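Progress report, Aim 2. The chain analyzed during this reporting quarter is listed below.
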Amino acid sequence: MKYSGIGGQAVIEGIMMKNGDRYSTAVRKPDKTIAVMEDKYESLTTRFPIFALPFFRGIFSFIDSLILGMKTLSYSSSFFEDDEDSKPSKFEEKLIKIFGDRLDKVIMGITMFISVIASIAIFMVLPMLLSNIIKMKINNHYIIAIFEGIIRIAIFIIYIKLISGMEDIKRTFMYHGAEHKCINCIEHGLELNVENVMKSSKEHKRCGTSFIIIVMMISILFFMVVRVDTIWLRAVSRIVLVPAIAGVSYEFLRIAGKSDFWLVNLLSKPGLWMQGLTTKEPTPDMVEVAITAVGGGFDWRTYLEENF
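Predicted structure tokens for the chain:
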């Protein structure tokens, strides 16, 4: 395996692939044709060099992924919106009057903000509160920190299990598998075609799912070291330390994506196992969409010639 620098994400009936500042989103439209949007995105780490420093870059790369993810999701969803004419409500008319053409960006920003706050509340603060259950019987800081981490991972697994029952989410997980298969196909020196992609692995160490699991594992170590007895200060510490945990986790993910060292592979296993929940085997037509997305933002033929 040789690092390619390409990454991506599944969107509604499609895939976004990104390499450097170029990205391409391919979507299978209702008429079964493939629509492609190619564009450039200048990341925060490029615009502000200080944000590209180790441990800082993980935080701002996460923000970049949220912004670009929302943009590409909005693009893919536009092909599946209800075509029927519907009159905007009075509230919608008021918002349009206030924000005008910026309304979509405002809604996107609010959605991102609420999503981040909800994620921190559910996956960081809630496990801390639930871990107090055993504090009545076991007053050991380290055991409580480990128990809190187990609760955090359990909540994530339950959440994924619940949403995976939805048909749209199932298909998104299949496109997620197609994305990984394409990257693995390229990074193992194979020509990018449906046959080679289909036989490639659907697990990849540079996956967002792996990042989340790494965050949860590293958070256990952080909260074992940071000892706060007051419950409200413990809650604050869970929020304040999120950027630091994300920064450390990102650095490990960067190393994992470029290394085949046995220890790195071993530490990457939990994330790869968890991808069994968030990636599914795609169909050949989904792989076609993924290949189209790769070709829009990455010269994979030149990459293969130079590396293999």
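The radius of gyration is 21 Å. The chain has a mean pLDDT of 90. These observations will guide the mutagenesis work planned for the next reporting period.
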